[in-house]
Amino acid sequence: MASSAQTLLLVDGYNIIGAWSCLQKIRDRHGLEPARQELVEKLINYAAHQDYRTQVVFDAQYQNTPSFQEDHTPHLSVYFTAFSQTADTYIEKVCAGYFRGIEPAPPRVIVATSDYAQRLTVVGYGAQWLCAQKLEKELEHAQRLIRSRQKHQKRSQGRFLVNSLDAKIQEQLTQWLHDRS
After folding, report:
1. What pLDDT does 159 receive?
2. Best exposed site among 8, 48, 52, 109 by fewest CB in 10 Å?
3. Is there a contact between 77 and 90 (Cβ–Cβ < 8 Å)?
């Protein structure tokens, strides 16, 4: 994970899947695993773009397994709760730990969920709340900005293949051509 000085975004995974129509369709047609993967893929670039330390939390879904975490990028991890714990209780416990000073708190904690009861609880612990629809809009906006930047970078590279090479490689190639002449 990235440094603790970053904003922490806690995402109630199944709540978001149930709230976004694109993820609902994937879940209904192909199951939960592809919907989870799509949510994680969508959040990877967003987390990096925002420089958020992001944790997507999923319930164990009645599987008798211990909790575990998968780190996908320095900005994003996925946490699966233990059998007896819900995503809501895990997220609330994290927020309460920061509120009570049990752990050093990041400058901001944002919880993404459309669960009204959870919203009230985490806001009571000093976290900010982001509804599923607002997260989706922010994510789409970030994707547009990223695409726009990538287009601009491609245009500014020019039409020659050498412009798409790493700067160090370009320098070596220039040196090699200079040495040959």
Report:
1. 60
2. 48
3. no
- Could you tell me the CA-to-CA distances from 122 to 18, 75, 85, 102, 174 in Å, in that order? 20, 22, 17, 16, 57
The answer to whether residue 39 is domain-embedded is yes
Domain that holds residue 61: 8-142
pTM of the prediction?
0.78
Residue 64 in any domain: the answer is yes
CA distance 134 to 112: 9
Residue at 116 is within a domain: yes
- The amino acid present at 147, given as its one-letter code, is R
Q: How far apart are CA 49 and CA 179, in angstroms?
A: 41
Which CATH number belongs to the domain containing residue 61 in this structure? Answer: 3.40.50
Residue 46 exposure: Cα atoms within 13 Å on the Cβ side: 21
- Classify residue 180: in a domain, yes or no: no
Mark out the alpha helices in 51-162 (DSSP H runs). 87-99, 116-124, 132-156
pLDDT for 49-103, tens place per residue?
A: 899 999 999 998 667 788 888 999 999 999 999 988 899 999 999 999 999 988 8
Q: How many domains does the chain have?
A: 1
